[in-house]
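Notes from the pairing session

We agreed to fold both candidates in a single pass and log them together. This is the raw record for the first candidate, unedited. Please don't reformat it; downstream parsing expects exactly this layout.

Candidate A
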Amino acid sequence: MGEKDKDDGISMKSGGFKYQNRKKLSQRELNAMHPTQRSKYLAYEDPPKEATEAIASSKKRVLDISKKEVEETRTENQVDMEKDKHNQLIGQLKAAEARNRLRVMRLRYQANRAQEVKHLISCQPSAIKAVRLQAMVPHVPDKNSPSDTLDKLERTRVETLLEDERGLTIDRDLS
């Protein structure tokens, strides 16, 4: 890999081929060439030392800038993740506050309803009517059976008892 490779205009550099001009021109011959021919000739020559240094420094600047951008995006991503965690925590706190407000409102409604039912029971003209109303309308709704447990026959019996204003259905003389 000596003289023959140089004569062909091809040299091995860092594992790849690099094309070179076959004949070396002096500076005077180079200056005498037409600009287009000169640029074609210089395209296959090694760049001057100043150009090589300028290329290296510009590559270094580009790498530095890209590293800075990567660092900035990394810190921005960390800040964004912290903001997302903070927003999620605030959302959970707001949801818990809303659930608590609903629970308090439900308890207040149930207490007011129980108080109203007690008042209605105490305002009945007779004790029997009060007991009937108390049996039909409980103070606190039963959590085990929130739906209606009466069938049609039981419902008609209850309605008959409630409509009996003179107490004929429950007043029986057994004597």
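Candidate B (folded immediately after A)
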Amino acid sequence: MTDGGGRASVTDVTQLKLDTFLPYRLSVVSNRVSAAIATAYVRLFGLKIPEWRLIAVIAEGQPITQQAVGVATRMDKVTVSRAAQALAERGLIARQPNAGDKRSHLLSLTDTGRALYDQVAPKALEMEAAIFQQLDPEERKTLSAMLERIEAATARVAPESAE
């Protein structure tokens, strides 16, 4: 479209259509997947998403500091702290002093926390399979590789600041 003088209108060149803007679409899909999973975790296990993420990260390599959980999950300090407190109150995680850093604690799963993880993990994998069942194994592999490349590009465009 021109402005009457044969020049392209600025609004034509820079117009953003949200439903075709890839960052927005990624966010919408992510939110929908998280909401579906969150509903199941709350209903079945009484866990909020940050609490489940914390349990999952601890289960991978316990004990771990809250700071390391934040780095691994991209959750902010307050979210990690609240999740850790809620899980400790439920007896699902234990907090021990960190000999390497007196300002932090090491988080580990209790026996009850491990038993809950052992119930939740298969359900998480089942939900993942249901969500991605329309993709064949090669497409899932390609999607995973694409997401890694997008994450790397995002880190280059907007590096995370050290807190």
